[in-house]
Design a protein that fits this description.
By secondary structure, this protein is an all-alpha fold. It has one domain (about 5-80). It has 3 helices and no strands. It is flat, with a radius of gyration of 14 Å. The termini are far apart. The mean pLDDT is about 90.
Length: about 80
C-alpha cells in the first residue's frame, strides 16, 4: 500500500471518529481534547502531503503549521 493511501485512510479514520463523537453527542473535556489533537494531526497531514509542502524548505512548511496551531489554540481557549 502506498504512503499516500495510508495517509488518506488515517484522515478518513480521524473524520469518522469526529463524526461518531458528534453523533452520540459525547461532549467532555477528554473528547474535546482528543478532537483538537486529531484535528491538528489531520491539518498537519494535509499540509505536509496533500499541499505538497513536504518537499519545500522548512520555512514554508512552518507558516501554515503555525496558523493551524493558533486556530486550534484559540478553539481550545474558547472551549475551556
Amino acid at each position: 500500500m502506498e504512503k499516500i493511501t495510508k495517509i488518506w485512510i488515517t484522515l478518513l479514520f480521524f473524520s469518522l471518529f469526529a463524526f461518531i463523537l458528534g453523533w452520540f453527542e459525547r461532549v467532555s473535556s477528554v473528547f474535546v481534547a482528543l478532537l483538537l489533537i486529531t484535528t491538528f494531526l489531520k491539518g498537519y497531514l494535509v499540509i505536509e502531503h496533500f499541499m505538497g509542502l513536504s518537499e519545500v524548505s522548512l520555512r514554508y512548511r512552518i507558516i501554515p503549521t503555525l496558523w493551524l496551531s493558533v486556530v486550534i489554540f484559540f478553539v481550545a481557549i474558547t472551549y475551556y
